[in-house]
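Methods, example record. To illustrate the input and output format used throughout this study, we show the complete record for S-layer homology domain-containing protein. The sequence lines were provided to the predictor; the line carrying structure tokens was produced by it.
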Amino acid sequence: MRKNAKKATKRTCSMALAAVLAFAPVTVFGATDTANHWANAVISDWESKGLIKGYEDGTFKPDNSVSRAEFVTMMNNVLKNDAEGTVSFTDVKETDWFYQAVAAAVNAGYCNGYEDGTFKPSATISRAEAAVMIANAMGLEQDAAGAEGFSDEIPVWAVGSVGAVVKAGYMSGYPDGTFGAAKSITRAEAVSSLNRVLTQNDETVAATEVVLTEKEAVLEDQVVAGNVVIDSTVEKATLRDVEIQGDLVIRCAEDDKVVLDNVTVKGRIIIEKTGVEVSFSGKTDVKEVQVGAVCELTADDFEGSIDTVRITKEVAEKGDVVIDVPVDEVIVEKKASVKVKENVDTIQIAEDAEGSELDIAKDVVVDLVKADGKVEISGDGTVKKLEANADGITYHRDVTINKTEVASGVEAPTVVDDYVSGGGGSSLLRNIL
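The corresponding predicted structure is encoded as:
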């Protein structure tokens, strides 16, 4: 059993840091393996400031685990902890690179060793242990109730700290409802969590990541240099007059709502959980909405723009992706049932999205449907031009298609008389003329 750590005094954070990941061999800017990673924005920001290091092969390895010695080194740098002292752990020698870091952390009071007299510097640190260290370092009040919403078992010695760091916004859980207490914290998670410690406790530092965890969360009048994450604990989130230079990651789910009012997202909106409604209003501008789950996109006095809605995962059997907001381009990469209720310039059905269903509402105009995969088109709207590049394309008689272009060697689209609605979309009755 580990010893209880002493509570440390809260320290003022600063961006005047040495390289935080001092254990990595060489500074690498623009790591080759982080471009599509959820923590890319904060990793890139810290790399550009010389706060973290990557590896000689050009990678950062964001999902690699972190040792206890490495984590206390990061903690010391973020907190500017240079406390002097000695330690007498049997596995920590004065000649070890981490000796002074361990000594500083122990003497500052936010971590300790084990009852057998060891510190276990090379052991990977769990998310529960990381939560305890952060809570102690920041002087947070224990909050066991804050951890009750997680479905995994959290050790008794860590429950209060987990609840405290989640409430403070320093750490969050996973989309499946777990905290991952027993999991090793990854390099990306460590950087992300400590970045929140840094930015939320130094008013001179522009935030590079914000995590919303309150049941009814509000974020207003801010410029966020990195990502904004709406956690699974949130039921309604309102973002107003916010610029997000990274991604907006939405993890709240069915019957939950996210309102974006005068919000600019320079990265992507990433929807991870089923059933959420995202409402766009004011001059909200978004480059791309990445849809990984059934959802509804709506508009309320919307004067902005959405460049692309991209459906990246197969969701056809789970319900409809409803697009009730004007969009320049919809790209269906995987099989989906899509209901379009506002005008769209272009809808692309990828080859891998074969079997998708597209319902175009009355009075809605789609300038171009480019079908590289088999698709069923229903509804009462208008398609100005249909490019048929795959066999088996069908459309309901009530859909108006002004012009059809059929690729060489491809069967012409077929008109279907009737259809009935149900489940995840329309099931066309094969009364083909």
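Annotations derived from this record:
The helical segments are 40-48, 68-79, 99-108, 127-137, 156-168, 187-200.
The mean pLDDT is 85.
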